[in-house]
Amino acid sequence: MAPAQLGLFRALCIKGCGIGRAAEAGCCRAMSSAERPKRPLSAYFRFLRDNQPAFRQQNPELNSLELVKKLAGVWRELPASQKQVYEEARKTDWRKYEEQLAAYKAQLTPAQAAALKEERRKRLAKRRSFRIKRELTVLGKPKRPRSGFNIFVSENFQQSKGLSPTAKLKQLFETWQNLSSSQKQPYLQLAQDDKVRYQNEMKSWEAKMVELGREDLIRSREQRPKKKTDTAQEGSKASLRESLAKLKLKKSEE
């Protein structure tokens, strides 16, 4: 969409949604996000795109993951001169991308720019959270303990009534609410046992993380090694306290 067309579309959005920055941002946000230029592929991903169909035809027995691993091995062995062809194509597309991105940002209103910035922040936070969870899984972090209700649900979900998972959960929640204390007790005891299991496993896991130098992953700050006090900083603080004490003494003598 040309800049003039984008301006006309934005004006129509404002007219249709109502005057004001909030209305403009809400109405045109989808348009702005959709029109943003796409980042060009890296040299490696260009190689994958160009060669995957032929490799798949030559290796029909391989699944997608195995095929990508095979292509990655071929890329590693590829001469620098052949890799340079893909790198030059990336540079050319990158220059076009920068020009398109500058034109795109220039036609955004302040409200749209703010909305897109917030959208990007949330997207990056979601990616960061996913990476952290994946890393914790690889490092073998113990699973959190289950509640009595969670255990009750896992044992009774299949035979519970309901056409959908949501309906089943709702029915099980109502059943749980109507159970007597004695009926809930076995599940609560299992939950307590699971809590003890989690605490013991976490102690061992956190001790291992300290050994690996990953104190950032443990729960309690008290378990982290205390940082050494900066001697120079402590010396300056002591000198300041001494000067204040002398000043107070001088004033009292006056």
Automatic annotation (TrEMBL):
Top-level lineage group: Eukaryota
Main subcellular location: mitochondrion
InterPro entries in UniProt: HMG_box_dom, HMG_box_dom_sf, HMGB
Comp. bias regions, Basic and acidic residues: 217-231, 239-254
Gene Ontology molecular functions: DNA binding
PROSITE patterns tied to this protein: HMG_BOX_2
Coiled coil: 188-215
DNA-binding region: 37-105, 142-206
Subunit structure as annotated in this protein's UniProt entry: Monomer; binds DNA as a monomer. Homodimer. Component of the mitochondrial transcription initiation complex, composed at least of TFB2M, TFAM and POLRMT. In this complex TFAM recruits POLRMT to the promoter whereas TFB2M induces structural changes in POLRMT to enable promoter opening and trapping of the DNA non-template strand. Upon metabolic stress, forms a complex composed of FOXO3, SIRT3, TFAM and POLRMT. Interacts with TFB1M and TFB2M. Interacts with CLPX; this enhances DNA-binding.
Protein name: Transcription factor A, mitochondrial
Gene: TFAM
